[in-house]
Amino acid sequence: MVNMVHSLLSIDWDYFIPLKREWLGSYVENQKNIEAIWYKRYIKSVLEGEDLEKSVDTTSILEDFWVKIKEHFDFIRNIKVFVSESHMLSYYIARANECEEVYSFDTHADLGYAGMSSVNFELNCANWLGKLLNEGKIKKAHIIYSPHTFEKPEDFKDFNKLFSIRYYRDIDVLPEGIYTVAVHICRSGAWTPPWLDNKFEKFIKNLNLPYRVIKLYRRDWDIKKLSLSDQIFYLNFA
Fold first, then answer.
1. What domain of life is recorded for the organism (predicted)?
2. Angle, alpha carbons 127-133-137 (nearest 5°)
C-alpha cells in the first residue's frame, strides 16, 4: 500500500563525491567561494604532488542511483523538480508543497552544527532541516548519509531527543512506496568540484523529468588559463 504522507526527496550532489576532511567547514555559497576555493585547493594539491582532477571523482553509487530511487519513491504525476546551488532551498520547497517528511541524501545532516541554538541562526545550507523540524513544518526527517560522510548520528543528540529523525547508510533499507510530491537536487559548489559539473548536469538529465533551475551559478573552470599571478592570488584566497 502506498504511504500517502507527502514527502520531499532532497539530493545533495556531494552525496556522490568523497571529500577530504580538511575541506570540511562552513562556507558562504556565493560565486567567489564556489569557484575560487577550488582553484586554491587544486593549486595547493599540485604543489603537494596530487592532481585533484584525477583523484577526486564521483563514486560508483551514482551509476544506478535513479533506478534505486524509483524502487522506493513513488513520484506523483507532474511532480515538481527543482535544481539549485544551495541545499537551503529545500526549506522553502518543503513548506510550499506542505511536505510532512523529508528524505535527504547528503554528506551532511544539515540539522545545524551548534546544537539546538543552530535553529536560531538565520536560515542557511547547514540548518534548513533543523529549522523545518523545530518550526513543526515537517514531522519526520530521514537522513541518508553518503558512504564517505565524516558525521555520525550521535553528533546530533540534542536534535535526536526532540524530533523524529532516522539515519540510514544504504538506500536499499528504505521502505517502498514513499509518496513523493517534490524533488530537489542541489550542487553545493563549495563542497563539490567544478570539474565534475558536466556529470552533475548529466545526472539531472538522467532523471528524465522537466525541472526548474533556481539560482545555480555558472563556474568557469580552466586550470590551463591561470597565469602565475592568478595562482598566487588563489593560493592567498581566504
1. Bacteria
2. 115
